[in-house]
Design brief:
The structure is a single chain. The chain is α/β, with parallel strands linked by helices and about 650 residues long. Helices cover about 30% and strands about 25% of the residues. Among the domains are: about 300 residues, ANL, N-terminal domain (Rossmann fold, 3-Layer(aba) Sandwich), CATH 3.40.50.12780; about 130 residues, ANL, C-terminal domain (GMP Synthetase, Chain A, domain 3). The chain is built from 20 helices and 32 strands. An 8-stranded mixed sheet has the order 12-11-8-6-7-14-15-23, with helices on both faces. About 50% of the residues are buried. Bound molecules: 5'-O-[(S)-ethoxy(hydroxy)phosphoryl]adenosine. The site of 5'-O-[(S)-ethoxy(hydroxy)phosphoryl]adenosine (WTA) has 22 residues, from helix 12, strand 20, strand 26 and strand 27.
Length: about 650
């Protein structure tokens, strides 16, 4: 599609980056003087407690260090430094599943975070460097806990509430967490949904490093209680002082871990730094969402994912804006819920995943027209490619053909946006991430580092380190190097491989084409095929399995499993249900298979490697164009194809 949508000039004139000339001025400055570019922003944006001595240290690449020996504290950056001017401004607007709302000012946020930090420090001995696991719903206490950790210099690791006890236990053990913070449960679609029991299960299976479980009350349902280990946040918090001095942290001290799926093995603990991360969270917040005074920003992600970290909590609060936190789902009690919230809270920027847009479109095409959405200026998408029809509906019906749409491309590992339109500058092509942000050196290349020709698919890479990049995989530096840097070098320096494919058009616009590795993107969530296969193999009946992504109307991709049974006579619908139950136990409901097929074998090369590409083509109903002559048994392809067609 070659249609171009230009920024509204009225809006552009006051934008953070008001034109493509302004964009190029910034980007050229970064190209000419990379350190100087970043120094300017680091000095302007961050409240340093002690100055740094070097902008970027590349001596131990790819273990880059930014703003070496500088001192700062993220809870100061997000709260304290705003108090002189913003104590009475809303920091967080919380809306519960049932419509209950709470407005929390920066002043109140300060009090609550200080108290929470004192609770963690005084009652549980949490200190700098300790790991704290959060298994929390979307309630304000989750934000207090994150910020309290940063105040003390403890490293939080948030585990999404949809992960199972087994997955939670693995993450607790990998990080050797000292304490778990959770809630009794949450409300979802008007009903209580339990969380604390999952923590109990996880800790009954392992997680011996955990000394205490701190439980926040949310739905007041009955829960089991382990005396001595479990503690009530609500009973203890009032006794805490509201003054807890923040710990001066080194620029490179780890800020948090967040586990994410890769193409091989277990999920990896992506480790982020303090200064570089918060700097880019704040800069992208200001640029990409074109923040202005009195804005109210709503990102619909869950804090269990990177989008929730960077664009519900750290970016908005570092930038001193008002952020919305929502406990529920956007289609309950009806398909107008999200739009009602936009109206009720005067929301100016709305940021969500294409899956949600497709769902809201499908369940309530005309719903947005029933509400006053006139305050909206910027609409964002993230997590997966957006298809042009969904983009158009978002633009025309939700944005009333007046809002800029920013298709933001980034990853857990990048910390913040990498490629995105700028609302006041970029002429937008629908469903296109457009250009790298100023300071980001993005290139589409072949495996050997040569540039991919215009109009062809290549690997999306970032060729220079950037401040908010992943610093390490927790406890596994070798895997870090191997997973992201490979052998490819540019000007003698390692190149970061995103794992995504991309294509540039003749105007220099970048479109992300999807993963190039064995990661499936389900509703914008990353699922490693290896992880799902490992779970399925735990079922006794299964001899071999291969899972692939299958296009799905709403979710983008769903999970499809090819199952080879030890005894083919066991094939049944009941077995499919039982296999999904194993997945639910091992990973969580988010990894359930949408469909399965029992097959006599999977196509393998003579060296035993599963040819997933063929399996992907079969499930999409595409013609098989791959060379099958290298297969151990080429005839299996046609057999499987017939089975899948039949199903
Ligand atoms: C995909 C989410 C197309 C991509 C922030 C990436 C996208 C993975 C886009 C990261 C986009 C993210 N267009 N694909 N705008 N944004 N992706 O770590 O495959 O949960 O590698 O971070 O989502 O997912 P993650």
């Amino acid at each position: 599609m070659s249609e171009i949508y230009y920024p509204n000039p009225e809006f552009a004139k006051d934008a953070a980056i008001p034109s493509m000339d302004a964009y190029w001025e910034l980007q050229n400055k970064a190209i000419e003087d990379y350190d100087g570019f970043w120094k300017g922003f680091a000095d302007e944006k961050i409240e340093w407690l002690a100055p740094y001595d070097k902008v970027l240290d590349e001596s131990d690449a790819p273990f880059y260090k930014w703003f070496t020996n500088g001192k700062l504290n993220v809870s100061n950056q997000c709260i304290d430094r705003h108090l002189d001017t913003k104590a009475d401004q809303n920091a967080i607007i919380f809306e519960g599943d049932k419509g209950d709302a709470e407005h929390i000012t920066y002043g109140q946020l300060s009090t609550r975070v200080n108290k929470m930090a004192n609770l963690l420090k005084n009652e549980f001995g949490v200190k700098k460097g300790d790991r704290v696991v959060l298994y929390m719903p979307m309630i304000p206490e989750a934000a207090y806990a994150m910020l309290a950790c940063t105040r003390l210099g403890a490293i939080h690791s948030i585990v999404f509430g949809g992960f199972s006890s087994e997955a939670l236990k693995d993450r607790i053990e990998d990080a050797e967490a000292k304490i778990v913070i959770t809630a009794d449960g949450v409300f979802r679609k008007g009903k209580p949904y339990m969380l604390k029991n999952v923590v109990d299960d996880a800790l009954s299976q392992g997680g011996k490093s955990v000394e205490a479980v701190l439980v926040v009350k949310r739905n007041n349902e009955e829960i089991a209680w382990v005396e001595g280990r479990d503690h009530s946040y609500n009973e203890m918090i009032n006794a805490q002082s509201d003054i807890c001095p923040f710990e001066p942290m080194d620029s490179e001290d780890p800020l948090f871990l967040l586990y994410t799926s890769g193409s091989t093995g277990k999920p990896k603990g992506v480790q982020h730094s303090t200064a570089g991360y918060i700097l880019w969270a704040q800069m992208t917040m200001e640029w990409v969402f074109d923040l202005r005074k009195d804005d109210v920003f709503w990102c619909t992600a869950d804090i269990g994912w990177i989008t929730g970290h960077t664009y519900i909590i750290y970016g908005p609060l570092a930038a001193g804006t008002t952020t919305v936190m929502f406990e529920g789902v956007p289609t309950y009690p009806d398909a107008g819920r999200a739009w009602k919230m936009v109206q009720d809270h005067n929301i100016t920027q709305f940021y969500t995943a294409p899956t949600a847009i497709r769902l809201l479109n499908k369940t309530g095409e005309d719903e947005p027209k029933k509400y006053d959405l006139s305050k909206l200026r910027v609409l964002g998408t993230v997590g997966e490619p957006i298809d042009p029809p969904a983009w158009k509906w978002y633009y025309e019906v939700v944005g009333n053909s007046k809002c800029a749409i920013v298709d933001t491309y980034w990853q857990t590992e990048t910390g913040g946006h990498m490629i995105s339109p700028l609302p006041g500058a970029t002429p937008i092509k629908p469903a296109c991430a457009t250009f790298a942000l100023p300071g980001i050196m993005a290139e589409i290349i072949e495996e050997d580092g040569t540039p991919t020709p215009v109009g062809e698919k290549g690997f999306m890479c970032i060729t220079r380190p950037w401040p908010s990049m992943i610093r390490n995989i927790w406890g596994d530096p070798e895997r870090f190097k191997k997973a992201y840097f490979g052998d490819c070098k540019k000007d003698g320096k390692p190149v970061y491989f995103t794992g995504d494919g991309a294509m540039m058009d003749e105007d220099g616009y970048i479109t992300i084409t999807g993963r190039t590795d064995d990661v499936i993107n389900v509703s914008g969530h990353r699922m490693g095929t290896a992880e799902v296969e490992a779970a399925i193999k735990k079922h006794d009946a299964v001899a071999a399995v291969a899972v692939v992504g299958k296009p799905h109307d709403i979710k983008g991709e769903g999970i499809f499993a090819y199952l080879v049974l030890k005894n083919p006579d066991d094939a049944s619908d009941e077995l499919k249900v039982a296999i999904n139950q194993v997945i639910k136990k091992e990973i969580g409901a988010i990894a359930l298979c949408d469909a399965m097929a029992f097959v006599p074998d999977v196509p393998k090369t003579r060296s035993g490697k599963i040819m997933r590409r063929i399996l992907r083509s079969i499930v999409k109903g595409e013609e098989i164009t791959q060379d099958t002559s290298t297969l151990e048994d080429p005839s299996i392809v046609w057999i499987i194809e017939a089975i899948v067609k039949e199903a």
